[in-house]
Amino acid sequence: MFSRLREDLASVRERDPAARSTWEVLTCYPGVHALVLHRLAHAAWKRQFHWLGRFVSHVSRFVTGIEIHPGATIGRRVFIDHGMGVVIGETAEIGDDCTIYQAVTLGGTSLYRGVKRHPTLGNGVVVGAGAKILGGFTVGDGARIGSNAVVVKPVPAGATAVGNPARIIDAERDQERDQARERKAEQMGFSAYGVTRQMDDPLAKALHGLLDHAVETDRRIQVLIERLEKAGVALDETVKKADEFDAEQLSRMVD
Questions:
Q1: CA-based max dimension of the chain
Q2: ∠ CA 142-13-91 to the nearest 5 degrees?
Q3: What is the pTM of this model?
Q4: pLDDT for res 184
Q5: pLDDT for 199 beyond 50
Q6: Cα(96)–Cα(122) distance, rounded to whole angstroms?
Q7: Which residues contact residue 140 at a Cβ distance below 8 angstroms, ignoring those fewer than 6 apart?
Q8: Among 160, 123, 133, 130, which Cα is nearest to 145's?
Q9: Which of 32, 85, 201, 215 sits between 20 and 30 A of 230, alpha carbons compared?
Q10: How far is the CA of 91 from the CAs of 97, 115, 122, 201, in angstroms?
């Protein structure tokens, strides 16, 4: 037990730049206290002392603000940062070296006993503040869950899930898409595209959709022109000329 505690203290010192000393972590970090009390509650639960396990869990919740069901399985060197509002369900499993921030819920979607209702986190998973992971599926090793994401399906190892409902980010494809958008925006002289795609502004999302459509339309037209020229069809210069577009007017509309 003491070796696990030493690991916990060391992992907090490594991952939290605000931790100034081991004594401070031991005495002032509710995530560490919650894990220690959970180990006692879990040991009682496995020995069929269910009421005792629940009571220790209840005391831990009152003291730390972190609710961990005594039936949950938690690995080594798990860091619950801040911790207030964290809820971890009965059949949840958390791997080694995971980091969980405040207001995270590892919840279930089934009302039936005896089934896997809560998620399994692989090793090295990071769950951002306010995220909800709901269901008996697996979040793969090294995955990242963005703050306030609502995850209702499996997340592959090493992937990042963001949004509500959460979507898996393909970083390489998203980067290519962003670069195509930027090139099209520069081509059109559209200065208002400074709004980033990560923002939830409906207008920004609509503009991103329009730019994506413009990029795809340009690509298809270019393919048609190339195939017509290969077929020996003579094309007028007006066909090859880019469409007229009043970028200044569009910028004024969204500014």
A1: 86
A2: 45
A3: 0.65
A4: 55
A5: no
A6: 7
A7: 122, 125, 154, 155, 156, 157, 158, 159
A8: 160
A9: 215
A10: 19, 8, 14, 37
Q: Is the pLDDT of residue 244 over 90?
A: no
Torsion, Cα 245 249 250 253, to 10 degrees, reads -160
The three-class DSSP label of residue 74 is: strand
Q: Edge-to-edge strand order for the sheet containing 150-151?
A: 67-68, 87-88, 105-107, 132-134, 150-151
User: CA 14 to CA 78: how far, in whole Å?
Assistant: 12
3-state secondary structure 85-154: CCEECCCCEECCCCEECCCCEEECCCCCCCCCCCCEECCCCEECCCCEEECCCEECCCCEECCCCEECCC
Strands 167-169 and 144-145 come out as: unpaired
Q: What type of residue is 123? A: N
Which residue bears the tokens 């005594």?
70
Q: Which two tokens stand for residue 184?
A: 């099209």
DSSP state of 192: G
**Cβ–Cβ under 8 Å, residues 171 and 155:** no
User: What are the phi and psi torsion angles at 149 (to 5°)?
Assistant: -70, 150
Contact 70, 99 (CB under 8 A): no
Q: Which tens digits make up the pLDDT trace of 166-197?
A: 888 765 555 566 566 566 555 554 444 344 44
Residue 252 pLDDT = 52
d(CA 52, CA 234): 86
